[in-house]
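Chapter review: from sequence to fold.
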Amino acid sequence: MRRSGTDETRALEFERTLQRLKREGCNLLLVGSVPDSVLSAASRKLFGDPEERRFRVAVLSGTPRTVVYERLPTTALDETATVISHEGVSIPPHISAPVVDVDSGIRELTSSISETITSFEGSKNFQPGELRLGLDSLGSMLTRYDPTLVRQFLGIVGGQVRGANGMGHYVLPRPYDHELVTALEPLFDGVIEYRVENGREERWHFTHHDLRSPWLPL
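The token string follows.
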């Protein structure tokens, strides 16, 4: 069945918006009541092809010790990747990437992320999409910190990611219609919603542009 002119126009607008965000930098919220394996697959995808030049920052806050292998391919754990362990999350000792332990609060975590990004060789001249940051999870942070502090954190870190023309993704394992998602959505350039009704699927929401994609294979 052919799509209507309106459908084709919105599909083209969606593609243009996606390409612009990739080019100019963006921060994406990952949501959905789905198995952890789905969010792991989504995170690996957003961290980018391990064979391409990328500078990756994996922030683990309140997540299991094995998450770094699930979220970030082992082949990408080299000198162009840094793992930040926040508040006592245990990291396997044989990870080859540098590990930064942050045992204090959210302000120190903010500083650590900022310092890590600026420490990468060539950080003053990142190409679009070279910097990739992933945080797991916002749900854990929101149980420990005042929401105002978390919002400030997202503003600072997200601003630095955009300033480097990078891509940041932040995991919040809640349904798209959850009140936390509704409250945080305006802080992000887009929200990616996941489900497993017909296999692993994703749907993109660009609320600033009143755009939403159909369900797509992950």
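Two observations follow directly from the output. The chain is about 35% helix and 25% strand. Helices lie at 5-24, 36-47, 67-71, 106-119, 138-144, 147-163, 179-184.
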